[in-house]
Design a protein that fits this description.
It is built from 21 helices and no strands. With 514 residues, it is mainly α. It has two domains: 435 residues, no CATH class; 65 residues, no CATH class. Helix 2 runs parallel beside helix 6, helix 5 runs parallel beside helix 9 and helix 13 packs antiparallel against helix 16.
């Protein structure tokens, strides 16, 4: 029950952030579409956003939370605070140096990030200028990751989960209020990123103070505690962020095709909604929970928690993946097709979304399985898995890009995600850290069957509603609402009818919530 309550907190705030993110992306699509300004900004935003996801949702959290929990348990709040302050000092110093070097070397970095832009000097120069503006976001997000890990270790998930909402609010205000006054969309979007980063850092700083962890900034020293953190974090940067590194590789290759960077960005934004609501929430909540159970030797409880995590994540993810595969075009048309975003952009983005969606269950499985390693302070095994995954993704992207264009990049990312999930699950099974219980074995096939039947129903309904999506915006929105509502009702009925989920369980959860 505690797992569900924590997931509801993280998933609820993440859901608000993702919904506002859709509003943000609708506005961006209308203003810049898939043209050169869009490509330049998305590349400028990709690098600091990559580090946000690596640190905030991956490596730093995976290394910091178990160590902070150990210091909190063994030495109390005083020892945990000292560890957090030492980490803050070293992290801030390193990031200031990294930011200065990266901003100075940005023209050379751009040849690595978007080599295809070199053929268009104006787009290349704009990408360099915007990247220099957005790069400090990396600094703020890394500090936010530290404060989020601290709060998550204390079972205070709300502030960290709510912080990303500020990013989307800043984007919306910038596009609605500031852009009409300046007429420079690229610069306005870039500065909105930096302002949002500062706002998120201040929000979590206040939340930590209220939690009784007001941090000072001591002189940076590489103490044994910080050294242990860095040792755990180094392999975790790749292991926890394999998906994000794969997306970065995709961006580099996509820069060779006009508009491809934008197509992949918009498709990524759509499937990030279920990934954020389900996968990221599970990763954030499971890690401190499994860490506490393993520290007190409750292996059976940890195993049961992991099984319930797998069950619940697939109950929510499989239908979402099927829906995105079956009806990507209506979703993209309703969300983005207006202003500078035309029908050709919708069709190209929908194909990328379909290819990405096939890997959604794998992305979520990775987020559920990795905490089983991180809670044991094992970042090396996920690192080795991620090395294989990234290598496979690069090879597949290069192979599939030439015949399939940007769709090949999305498909390569999906295949690499399934490889990642399979290798992680296999390692846990071999070591005895994961055993599928009877309930999971019984329910997974039922969840899969319910999702497939729902997909068939969605396909038939979408075919009947097809003319609605060539009509006015009101008809399009109504058509998508019918698809989403119909799919939800059908899947819920099937899940109950096939006993993929029991009414008594949901009723108990609701009573507990009240």
């Amino acid at each position: 029950m505690a797992l569900v309550r924590s997931l509801a907190t993280v998933g609820g705030y993440t859901g608000i952030s993702r919904i506002l993110g859709f509003v943000r992306d609708i506005l961006i699509a209308a203003v810049v579409g898939t043209g050169p300004v869009a490509d330049a900004f998305f590349v400028a935003f990709r690098l600091p956003n990559l580090f946000r996801r690596l640190f905030g949702e991956g490596a730093f959290n995976a290394a910091f939370v178990p160590l902070f929990a150990r210091h909190l348990e063994e030495g109390g709040k005083a020892a945990a605070r000292v560890f957090a302050e030492e980490t803050l000092a070293v992290l801030l110093s390193a990031l200031l140096l990294l930011s200065a070097l990266a901003m100075a070397a940005m023209p050379w970095l751009m040849y690595l990030l978007a080599p295809g832009f070199a053929a268009e000097p104006e787009k290349f120069d704009l990408a360099v200028r915007l990247s220099r503006v957005t790069f400090p976001y990396l600094l703020f997000m890394s500090l936010v990751a530290l404060l989020s890990g601290l709060l998550n270790s204390l079972n205070r998930f709300a502030a960290a989960a709510a912080a990303p909402i500020l990013l989307n609010v800043c984007f919306i205000v910038a596009l609605v209020v500031v852009l009409p006054l300046t007429g420079a969309p690229g610069q306005v979007l870039a500065w909105a990123v930096v302002v949002a980063g500062l706002g998120q850092f201040l929000l979590l700083l206040i939340a930590c103070r209220r939690a009784g962890f007001a941090l000072r900034l001591p002189r940076p020293r590489l103490t044994p505690r910080v050294g242990r953190l860095l040792k755990l974090m180094a392999p975790g940067v790749l292991s926890a962020g394999a998906l994000q590194i794969n997306l970065l590789v995709g961006t580099i290759i996509a820069s060779l095709q006009v508009g491809a960077v934008s197509y992949l960005y918009y498709a990524d934004r759509v499937y990030q909604l279920p990934l954020g609501l389900i996968g990221i929430a599970f990763g954030v909540v499971l890690l401190p929970d499994l860490t506490r159970k393993l520290r007190r030797g409750a292996e059976a409880e940890a195993m049961a928690q992991l099984n319930r995590g797998l069950e619940l994540s697939m109950l929510l993810t499989l239908p979402a993946a099927v829906a995105l595969v079956v009806i990507p075009w209506p979703i993209v048309v309703v969300l983005f097709e207006r202003g500078s975003f035309d029908r050709a952009s919708s069709e190209a983005t929908a194909l990328a979304l379909m290819a990405f969606a096939g890997g959604l269950p794998a992305y979520v499985l990775v987020k559920v399985l990795q905490p089983a390693f991180f809670a044991r302070e094992d970042t090396v095994t996920p690192f080795r898995v991620a090395v294989a995954t990234v290598a496979a993704n690069i090879a597949l992207s290069l192979i599939l890009f030439w015949p399939l264009g940007h769709v090949g990049i999305a498909l390569a990312t999906t295949l690499a995600a399934w490889l990642n999930a399979a290798l992680l699950g296999g390692a846990l099974l071999r070591r005895g850290f994961l055993r599928f219980d009877a309930r999971l074995k019984a329910r997974l096939p039922r969840i899969g069957l319910a999702s497939l039947i729902m997909g068939a129903g969605l396909w038939a309904l979408a075919a009947w509603l097809l003319p609605w999506f060539d009509a006015g915006q009101g008809w399009r929105v109504a058509g998508l609402a019918l698809l989403v509502g119909g799919g939800l009702v059908l899947y819920t009925g099937l899940a109950y009818g096939l006993h993929a989920v029991e009414r008594a369980e949901l009723a108990a959860l609701l009573r507990r919530r009240r």
